[in-house]
Amino acid sequence: MVTEICLVRHGETDWNARALIQGSTDIPLNDTGRNQARAAAGMLQQERWDALYASTMIRAIETAEIIGEVLSLGPVTTDHNLREREYGIAEGMDIAERYRRFGEGPIPGAEEWDQVRKRGLEALEAIRRANPGQRVLAVAHGGLINALLGVISAGEIGSGKTVLKNASTNLIVWDGSWKVRWYNRTAEAA
């Protein structure tokens, strides 16, 4: 039975606009992010969706609620495993400072990428089991989505290769194994 999950990256936050590492810091959407979520909903409105999930973080929930309102889809089911990677003491730093302080090495207190991939795959499996044969929207985060795209595409896209835009959509399909149908699609925010 084919199940489709569209992984949607949340809209922009003030920290995204300032290129700061957010990770598990719970930052809300800004006005641009809300407009991006509405634009994504307009794009997603062209197809049928059966269920709506989101990470437990406010920026993902708010994006999902905006999409759900436009698509008359809800309620939003939250899943802790869809949360962004915890970046430890690098949260709040810009990328240049992160590399200046830690280089390519580990960041103190940061969640290991293997753990991010593991819990992301657990989230996909839980969504698939709960919604067999359906089309599901799941609002999550750039790091987590890229980690999943990397696993599913065997490294062709994903972490280190793909910069996911805010409110981008990424469709994966289960037909016995996961496949990436498309990734990083966006609509222009109104």
UniProtKB/TrEMBL annotation:
One of its GO terms (molecular function) is fructose-2,6-bisphosphate 2-phosphatase activity. InterPro entries: His_Pase_superF_clade-1 (IPR013078), His_PPase_superfam (IPR029033), PG/BPGM_mutase_AS (IPR001345), Phosphoglycerate_Mutase (IPR051695). Gene3D superfamilies: Phosphoglycerate mutase-like. Substrate binds at R9, H10, G11, E12, T13, D14, W15, N16, R59, E84, R85, E86, Y87. SMART domains: PGAM. GO terms for cellular component: cytosol. The active site is at H10, E84. It comes from the Bacteria. CDD domains: HP_PGM_like. GO terms for biological process: negative regulation of glycolytic process; regulation of pentose-phosphate shunt. Keywords: Hydrolase. This is Phosphoglycerate mutase. It comes from Alkalispirochaeta sphaeroplastigenens.
